[in-house]
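[job 0412] stage=complex_fold ligand=protoporphyrin IX containing FE status=START
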Amino acid sequence: MKFPSPPLPRALRRSPPKPGRDERRNGGRNGAPATKPTPKEQAVEGAASVVGWLDERTGTSPFLRGFLYRKVPKGTNWYYTLGSATMFAFLSQAVTGVFLAMYYEPDPSRAYESASRITNEVFLGEFVRGMHRWGSTVMIILIFLHMGRTFFFGAYKYPRELNWVIGVVLVVLTLMMGLTGYLLPFDQRSFWATVVAVNLNASGPIVGPYLADFLRVGSEFGPTTISRFYALHMLAVPGLIAALIGAHLYLVAKLGTTAPPWLKAEKKDLLREEV
Ligand code: HEM
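[job 0412] stage=complex_fold status=DONE, emitting structure tokens
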């Protein structure tokens, strides 16, 4: 079913001409001198004309309206915010990661030193590194909570199976971010924990040994292993995650969200009563 597109938010709409204001602008009553619009009026006009300029050339407003103004089922509650919370955790990881990449050196002889320098010398380095470290745990907790919500609400069923499958790939990729990031501080703990994790991968059936060789860049940890982990951690995996989040959100907007299961149960009871 197609709903009529809702209007643009009030802040972005040109307000209808007000007699007092227009008179002030156009020279006032009886030819009195014009007064300037207030800074607030100027800011609103400015924003509206920038939005209008962009919209005229790109035609994005119907798309954005359809994407942002959606009917949600009755009974939608706080559990439905877990998907967006996961997305914000990912965005926070992306932003803090960019700042860390400005100082981090993915070289076995420099990695530990550069990470320590971020913590001890770089302005706000300890804070940003802490955000990135704790943010990774937060994202993993949130993604599993969101997965649990969609599972227990039956949101994986027809027609949302593809979104569930995309979600499963997102979980695997998020865990890969954790694995590839853990090696980067290159201290004793991160090094040996990664050796153990890659050996576990190697014991997997059929693809396990190949996967481990791919991660180590050979049969042993070597000088290029850290570059491989770094490239996966800051380019390949987050790129894939960003693309899949785009597909996931497209499907959420297209299919809508599922009503909580207890509402369906109530509806069935009602139907039974009516019969
Ligand atoms: C980076 C990871 C993820 C992000 C950013 C994300 C984002 C979202 C958002 C914003 C929604 C709509 C609001 C909501 O229901 O919370 C949603 C819905 C959904 N997500 Fe995710 N999600 C992620 C991972 C997952 C995972 C791991 C699964 C399952 C394996 C999953 C399955 C679903 C399903 C089935 C829906 C539809 C829910 C419904 O119809 O009620 N998502 N996701």
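The mean pLDDT is 90.
[job 0412] exit 0
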